[in-house]
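FORM 7B - TANDEM STRUCTURE REPORT

SECTION 1: FIRST PROTEIN
SEQUENCE AND TOKENS:
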Amino acid sequence: MGAEVTNTGAPGRRRGRRIDLRRLGRAALSGSGARGRLPDAIDHVAKVHRAHHPGADLDILHRAYVLAESSHRGQTRKSGEPYITHPLAVTLILAELGAETTTLTASLLHDTVEDTEVTLDQVGEAFGEEVRFLVDGVTKLEKVDYGAAAEPETFRKMLVATGNDVRVMSIKLADRLHNMRTLGVMRPEKQARIAKVTRDVLIPLAERLGVQALKTELEDLVFAILHPDEYARTRDLVLAHADRPDPLEATATRVRAVLREAGIAAEVHVRRRHFVSVHRVRIKRGELTGSDLGRLLVLVAEDADCYAVLGELHTCFTPFISEFKDFIAVPKFNLYQSLHTAVAGEDGQAAEVLIRTHRMHRVAEAGVVALGNPYAAPEAPDAPDGERVDPTRPGWLSRLLEWQRATPDPDTFWTSLRDELAQDREVTVFRADGGTIGLPAGSSCVDAAYVQYGDGAHHCIGARVNGRLATLGTVLRDGDTLHLLMSPDSASGPSPEWREHARTPAARIAIDRWLAAHPAPDPAADGPPAAPPAPGPPRTAPRAASAARDPVAVVTGAAGEGGRAAVSVRLAGCCTPVPPDEVTGFAVRGGTVTVHRAPCPVVDRMVTSGRQPVEVRWRSPDGTGGGDYRVTLRAESFSRPHLLADLTEAIAAEGVAVISAAVEPPYEQRVRHTYTLQLADAAQLPELMRAMRRVPGVYDVERAGRSLAAPL
């Protein structure tokens, strides 16, 4: 999978050991050495492997090496080294991370099927189905068969295989790391092309799988190729500080003394930042100090010791509280756990501190590789579609596997994959039924609907976030509680606006597919049409019934027996008060008193402007009165066909006449209906509002003049 040669201009730092390819090439061809020993070329890989797995059976590694060496014999890399040096280097990278024996066996053989006469069936017969599956997963598809689609289709194949066994991607990442180290003799344009794919796809995959040791070196190698000037500037900055006293070493000595005095067993190390990390810090902070070029790493035995260390540091040093993050209580989506804080060193500069257990550190460095063989436990049953059930499969990978099935076009898949991987954070949302949904940061309710319901999300008509009604475009935050509201009408579907709210490829692909299948939807499906106003008062400002028919209210304290005012009284059209509403009045031109409901916003404006309120009361002592009453109601609803007819029918069933009705244009599947109604008795109003709320799709009914909980 790689025919490149050593790149002498690549960055020189490396977490593990570098391999002498010429010495390794000679050892690869030198045979077994003494009887009973492993071949010299594989012996040092076995020693590293045994350091992590003391009881490992090395016979299978011996046999895999012999097959790989004999199959690749006569093949060389562009630098002249025997080709076997590449699978050996990949295997050593994985051995240093603690990979188990099956992964190392497959890594030795990962190029045999692609570049030699060895077949997958032969690999399976000699080493078992697991090794066969891993080798197949990382084998490229031929350009002869796929043309320009070979690369995206190879990644699709590899990701599907990773969905069944995460070790496939571990081998691919180690393979790409060694190829990136040895990229120097490639033409500059080919180096740039490989570096861009590494940046856009493989580095995000390494981040998601938690393999930080591979991710950081890949970042530096890509940085050197794609941004050589910035890389050189950063390298010079690091070298300029190399001969100066290191303030972090002094802080580390103080931290060791504090923890020793507190009786906490801990290792304290100075952990240097890699070049890309230094570059990012320089962009963020500007001028850098020696403390900015690294961080302190504190390793302890137990989780509780992490918090004990944190307490001592915050007690004995000046902490920068804004830098504190607890990834132990709330791990990252890629298995990462650690406490992050920062304290002031002797020079007053902030020294960042990472606090972990030894196990957390292994996982932080090696990610899924540190999990070993996820299938070593009692074998999981086969899934209905033939894929093995992987208990370690992260949520992002499950989402990716779902949407890639619906994306047959290689270009669309490639673009969607890079968009998906560009999201570098995840949030967890709690469903109303107690389950959880993992989503990329920035996702909306639309994205959550398609994760939870698949194509069934087409019928989503609304959502409640943390108990409050929210638009489908609402961006979800970590820890939100989400209740999706679904329409029983199977004819409903997404509107074009949903496409703007969708952040995940799965949602965008599903919406595009539905819209393509419904190119000319009936405009009536987007919302009920506005009914023409019935003869009578204007619909925008319904007026109260005439004083001759409607014994509405009286002004208290006016001349005349029984307190009846010798002035005319008019009910305000903005809030249409009815008994037994609490009311107040204001005198207007011509001596008329306009009566408003007490909560009406107009009342506050009139008082603020200096207008004096007039005391009014309903005519009848019991507050009910007699005659006909007009009231304006607003119904907040989710758009669906026949909604206006159903609401009108519900109103008529209560014996209430509709004077006028208006429907605002639908927005994000929501619509507002405004009705002016005539009631024979004000006591009908509460039951009328309850009847309207019972209409499917209606989620709120309010009197006009009151601010709604969730305005459009």
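SECTION 2: SECOND PROTEIN
SEQUENCE AND TOKENS:
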Amino acid sequence: MATFLYKLGRLAFRRRHFVALLWVALLTLAGVGAATAPTAGNTSFSIPGTEAQKAFDLLEQRFPGASADGATARVVFKAPSGEKMTDHANKATVEKTVKELKAGSEVVSVADPYTGHAVSKDGAIAYASVKYKVSGMELEDSSRDALKDAAQDARHDGLTVEVGGDALNATPETGSSEVIGIAIAAVVLVITFGSLIAAGLPLLTALIGVGIGVSTITALADVLDLGSTTSTLASMIGLAVGIDYALFIVSRYRAELAEGREREEAAGRAVGTAGSAVVFAGLTVVIALVGLSVVNIPMLTKMGIAAAGTVAVAVLIALTLIPALLGYVGRRVKPAGEKSRLLGGGRAPKKPGRPNMGTRWASFVVRRPVAVLLLGVLGLGAAAVPAASLELGLPDDGSQPVSTTQRRAYDLLSDGFGPGFNGPLMVVVDAKDSAHPKADFTKVRDEIKGLKDVVSVTPPAPNKAGDTATITVVPKSKPSSTTTEDLVHSIRDKGKDIASTTDSEVLVTGSTAMNIDVSQRLNDALLPYLALVVGLAFLLLIVVFRSVLVPLKAALGFLLSVLAALGAVVAVFQWGWLSGLMNVEQTGPVMSMMPIFMVGVVFGLAMDYEVFLVTRMREAYVHGEKPTQAVVTGFRHGARVVTAAAVIMIAVFSGFIGSSEAMVKMIGFGLAIAVFFDAFIVRMAIVPAVLALLGKRAWWLPKWLDRALPNVDVEGEGLRVPGPADGQDNGSGSGSDSGGERELVRA
């Protein structure tokens, strides 16, 4: 592989006009496609195979036009102190608001509080229920604006008005976070390279890659039912890996220049060596993202595949556009160790020949590997302890900041009607094959009324055919509580008993039941997903490192960092530690998607650092250095850029901690702390300590397996041939080419 990529790098350097034109054409084509594509709403949400989804599908068939999965909103009114909602003036304001809400083009129905018994016993609080034709993820912004305007008009008349429900669940804006991440990335790159030009190349190519990926997603959004969340994940991951991959190749190019090679030769060798690591690092990220399909949630599958496509684009850009741009900038990119004049270049170093920080750190670790290993493992183990108390769930309006109207509406409804009122359960009774459907409906209602933790059960509401009915159940506890989850399971168990004695089927659905089913699906998929991702990546790393113990160490280190990161998430978002610093206003269960999301994203990024750092060690070992010295050499060349890459990732993810959305805040914190643990404790401390202890055994591979595995030559052994290709001629372009050809023939 190194030989092929070496040729590709030199070809891109020489034919830079063609390569640059090709990528500009692709960016233009994707941009035109995105601009001319029909506007697509957010992707529809479904969980195939779950009881809640089966009930939704049944309601669509038996109650046509009812929009069973349509968005809902509750406009909650509170009378001024000393007044009641039944007072004439307050009642007139509510009726005017209901009339205003009914005018919406996507509105199916609006329930009047006074005819629907939606006034609290003390008369202080009332609510109007609004039903929409489409789901909250597909709702037009104009409908959300009309809902907010109606509430504001009622406030002007003296009432306290708040709006809850999924109708306001718009996709959170993250543009400012991305800008902050890019700004910090630029600063880190300038410090790393000591050159504005060299720092600008990774940023430029990363933005081009993200532009192509996101524009392509936008162009195909209507056809493939892709939503805005898909492009958000793709841009976040694409920006992260795009900067990383370009950073490693530019860094290797500068190192090759420092060894005296001509620029075209240096570009070829940078792509042949660092580019090989980029390919395999990219493959691990793609495996992790595509592997999300095992969860069998279509939206998550599409997000993973789209993000994987953006990663593939980032790899191709790093292998072709980076060497082409290096050809354009010429001598403005300095060899390693030199800075541009603008940033202090040309000055004599204060201490000539002093080892860099990576060398000094690695030398310290290989002298005291046991102490460093124990300290790292015990530290991560202590951070992981809270993970034993992990409680999973999906957020509702009760987890929103108290500054939001959704949270205030949630609290008003809890005060007026009880905490369970915010998460009613919908029971669907399918009596199509029953001889006595009405009797079955009544029996189901009576059985549910006898369960504990039930506040109220509405009479059955049959469809026109009389073969299906819905029953609304209000629990005593809040939607995200384990008590409500137990109640859902109890109703389903009762349904099975009823089904065994009658010909009717009982299904439980609604947003609360759907959240419970999604959480269960994600929990059930976590271990198979982890086995698939880690297993495939383990096999891939065996091919890369030609070792059994190094990939095993990489996988175990990753598990340590993920468990520690989950522990930190539990401590902050579930226990409330440092909640003031993180601006966490409401603690509660950790988002169900968090573990599997962290496994997928962090595993891919962690293997990036593993591949880039350890391939340098492997390269030094293959070229004759002793195992401990190879560790030091790997850090001398790779620690600076791996540190820079990790700092950039932490900055990008940390930008999301400032979001007002609890889910986005949790994802940002979880990913940032996971990258910190993995990059600075696992890869920078535990990895060199373990390799120092293992010595030559780290690179052991059974002979039969060595013969069976393909030789991908990631460390560039096929390029290590003395002669003109090493830059020992007088530097003419033709001399470098002919030397390279002789080298490639021998390889």
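SECTION 3: OBSERVATIONS ON SECOND PROTEIN
The chain is about 60% helix and 5% strand.
The two ends are 11 Å apart (CA to CA).

SECTION 4: SIGNATURE
Preparer initials: ____
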